[in-house]
């Protein structure tokens, strides 16, 4: 079983003061407001997070948990946006669009990766925030680690020049396209509408308005040998595009319980030929506009052998 597309380990950040981020509401149509008290929201989010970690570990996934006790980083539970890891020992650190999201970067995470995994280099693009450039990691890009394609929706979260630079450094081909939701609004992150597994890809083709580009994206996914599971906009609204394939005791597809409910039987059958579905119940965390994939920063690095002293 290849783990190139499906990492066996992830980084997760445990939020102690979770809330929906006011700085990202303008372009994240998935965010919702709650009438509950701040303390109640934070407590529920913490419980959902801990249950998700326990479920992943029970399924055989290695989970590195970092606590965030600060109150200035409401989206810290979504670490996949500020760094990514790549086979061969490569790590990227990204510039973020929202000012308070720039505070999510933690060098103790990078130091853990260097200590526990074989890291050859860390390329830090975050200084480009000073030029108002953003490339929000594996939110802005959905990466085909096997076919080396970076599928990227045009948005203020994915600067085209920076995308080209990333693709040159990390040996990906950029595949850029426009995507709009049912109301005609620009989609802000690519991982809202698509996720790529080893043998299948989930994508809402209807959200790509240009027919020729839609056909090209479909062709490239099919060329990679994957079954293309075409999602509806209604399924995207249930976070079914926001999934991540992992390797535990067997290959898994991590998704939210809400997303799992939105799966049609024939779609589920295609996935289950390749991976076991692992639903995680995170309704409070989803009010921030992200879901399971956003919570998981996959580790595509080789672990170091631990030597006893």
Could you give a short description of this structure?
With 309 residues, the protein is α/β, with parallel strands linked by helices. Helices cover 27% and strands 22% of the residues. The strands form five sheets. The protein has a three-stranded mixed β-sheet with strand order 2-1-15.
Mean pLDDT: 92
Q: In angstroms, what separates the terminal alpha carbons?
A: 33 Å
By oligomeric state, this entry counts as single chain
Query: What's the CATH first level?
Result: Alpha Beta
CATH architectural name: 5-stranded Propeller
Largest sheet: 3 strands, mixed
Number of domains: 1
Q: Please, how many helices?
A: 9
Helix content: 25-40%
Protein name: Arginine deiminase-related protein
Structure description:
It comes from Tritonibacter scottomollicae (Epibacterium scottomollicae). Pfam families: DDAH_eukar (PF19420). This is Arginine deiminase-related protein. This protein is an alpha/beta fold and 309 residues long. The chain has a single domain, classed as L-arginine/glycine Amidinotransferase, Chain A (5-stranded Propeller), CATH 3.75.10.10. 27% of the residues lie in helices and 22% in strands. The longest helix is centred in the N-terminal third of the chain and has 21 residues, at 38-58. Residues 23-32 have low confidence and may be disordered.
């Amino acid at each position: 079983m290849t783990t190139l597309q499906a990492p066996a380990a992830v980084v997760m950040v445990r939020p102690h003061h979770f809330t929906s981020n006011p700085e990202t509401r303008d372009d994240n149509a998935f965010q919702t407001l709650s009438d509950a008290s701040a303390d109640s929201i934070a407590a529920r989010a913490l419980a959902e997070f801990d249950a998700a970690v326990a479920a992943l570990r029970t399924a055989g996934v290695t989970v590195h948990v970092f606590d965030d006790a600060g109150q200035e980083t409401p989206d810290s539970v979504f670490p996949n946006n500020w760094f990514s890891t790549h086979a061969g020992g490569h790590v990227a650190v990204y510039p973020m669009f929202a000012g308070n999201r720039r505070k999510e970067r933690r060098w103790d995470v990078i130091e853990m990766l260097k200590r526990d995994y074989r890291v050859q280099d860390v390329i830090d693009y975050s200084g480009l925030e000073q030029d108002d450039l953003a490339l929000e990691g594996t939110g802005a890009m959905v990466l085909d680690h096997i076919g080396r394609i970076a599928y990227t929706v045009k948005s203020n979260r994915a600067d085209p020049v920076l995308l080209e630079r990333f693709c040159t450094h990390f040996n990906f081909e950029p595949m850029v396209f426009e995507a709009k939701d049912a109301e005609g609004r620009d989609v802000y992150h690519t991982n809202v509408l698509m996720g790529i597994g080893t043998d299948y890809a989930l994508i809402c083709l209807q959200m790509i308005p240009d027919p020729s580009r839609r056909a090209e994206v479909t062709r490239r996914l099919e060329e990679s040998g994957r079954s293309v599971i075409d999602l509806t906009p209604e399924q995207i609204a249930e976070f079914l595009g926001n999934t991540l394939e992992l390797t535990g005791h067997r290959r898994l597809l991590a998704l939210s319980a809400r997303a799992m409910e939105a799966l049609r039987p024939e779609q589920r059958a295609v996935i289950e030929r390749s991976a076991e579905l692992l639903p995680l119940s995170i309704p409070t965390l989803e009010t921030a506009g992200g879901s399971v994939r956003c919570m998981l920063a996959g580790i595509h690095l080789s672990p170091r052998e631990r030597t006893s002293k």
